[in-house]
Amino acid sequence: MKEFINEALSEYRSENPYPWHMPGHKRKDCYGADRWRQMFAYDFTEAAGLDDMHNPRSFIRDGMDSLRKIYGSYKTYMLVNGATGGILAAIHACCKPGDFILLGRNCHKSVYNAVNLLKLSPVYLVPEIIGETDILGEITPENVKVHLMEMIRLKKQPSAVVLTSPTYEGVVSDIKGISHILRQYNIPLIVDEAHGAHFTFMGEDTPAPAIKNGADFVIESLHKTLPSLTQTAVLHIADDRYQRELERYLQVFQTSSPSYLFMQSIEKAAVFCQSSPERFLQYRKRLMHFRKQCEQLEYLTLFYPAEKVYGYDTGKLVIRTRTDSEIDYQGKRRRMTGVLLARILIGDYRQIPEMAAAEYIIAMTSVMDDAEAFDRLYQALGEIDQRISLAAKAEEPDGPESAEACLHRKRRLSCTLPVMRMLPGEAWDQDCILTELESAEGLVAGEYIYAYPPGIPVVVPGEVISAQIIETVRSMLDEQLNVTGIYLSGNTVKVAVVGG
């Protein structure tokens, strides 16, 4: 692939035009720091002699056409407001206000924001939990078909179906099977493939990207797994059915002054990945070696779905803790949790994980992680595992969690969907009051409550807060997760409910 954007900008710079236009730094070294010098020199806008991302006519159009060929799409759009802007635009391109939509309950919060904005009526697909973990599995074609048939029977055919694949934990759904079902009813499939931007370049033994498996819209965050600037993403479409509407909404949900730095980064990342098959081969080998090493750990486990799922991204390192394990930490014996594991990795080893859940952490990898990086991570995990082992030998723990405790945890994790008393968008617009969490049972939620990351809601605006939801939120707080949608007043936890 030729670097149309980068070559055109280099030629433009050689002519040394003075910018009497935005941006205000005028491509000069404002901060006096070496790392900014080249950045300012290549930060352009839609001035004379350049191109416009929203209406590309020259080198940006050429760059987009090359991206289309790399990914095998009908058309690929650059996203400078992240995958969020692409998700919002795709849903708006398919749905009108008040429509029905079928979506995974584990969708990103940007999907729920689109539901709010359009006052959509959502029906949820709930993935099952994998084994005895607290990790959500895939959404199957059978699950989609059952829900779709029921919606059609009730004359509530959805205007779109939205799924997340791969999930934050790397689980991939059968996009080909799902798209085959939806095409029979002319229902577009939108796939949030934010965490799968590397699939196109990984080669064998890796799930195929959704755009090649029949999805109509696919949104990928390049910055998550490829060497690209934060906030860069792409959106692929399979045909021109929704092209006009999509392009209208891309202009709504993206800035009118798109960053040339971001566009250059997108192109650079694509060229780098396309021309580096050997790097990706070595990356796959490093992942395989690391996973093999982790089999030696006794108390920490590198997750791989024991139950059959359609696909799994081995580049996502989900490191689980044993629920019966303890460790001596800062002079105290503590139960080993995902949150504590992250704290030890950060404080003792300067290894910063992507996120920490109650029973696991996620370490995101990319082709840029070298062998030394993997060795350092494994060394840290090995030492922590040994510390857990020493604590177990010094004082035997109570043993594996009881069947009753396991059942309680499973019930909490797989709670039934709350009752929806009003549409999310309607509840979102209502006046809310704050009430104590324990007093909220039976009231209607006015805001989302979720642990972030990844942002999967425990309760959605318009849903009734049940005793089980209260128990779940309290448990999330006890596990020291980063919970959004709660308000602390001293030692009192409050939540927003519709009222006032």
Highlighted features:
21 strands; seven-stranded mixed sheet; Aspartate Aminotransferase, domain 2; Aspartate Aminotransferase, domain 1; alpha+beta; Ornithine Decarboxylase, Chain A, domain 4; globular
- Ends: how far apart? 59 Å
Tell the overall outline: globular
CATH topology of the largest domain: Aspartate Aminotransferase, domain 2
Quickly give the structural class.
Answer: alpha+beta
Uncertain runs: 397-405
**In total, how many beta strands?**
21
Biggest pleated-sheet summary = 7 strands, mixed
Please provide a written account of the structure.
There is one protein chain. Helix content is 39%, strand content 17%. By secondary structure, it is of the alpha+beta class. The protein has three domains: 4-274, Type I PLP-dependent aspartate aminotransferase-like (Major domain) (Aspartate Aminotransferase, domain 2, 3-Layer(aba) Sandwich); 277-401, Aspartate Aminotransferase, domain 1 (Alpha-Beta Complex), CATH 3.90.1150.10; 415-498, Ornithine Decarboxylase, Chain A, domain 4 (Alpha-Beta Complex), CATH 3.90.100. Strands 1-8-7-6-4-2-3 form a seven-stranded mixed β-sheet, sandwiched between helices. It has a four-stranded antiparallel β-sheet with strand order 9-11-15-14. Strands 16-21-20 form a three-stranded antiparallel β-sheet, with no helix packed on it. A hairpin with a 3-residue loop joins strand 14 and strand 15 (360-364). Helix 6 packs parallel to helix 7 (175-183) and helix 12 runs parallel beside helix 14 (371-394).
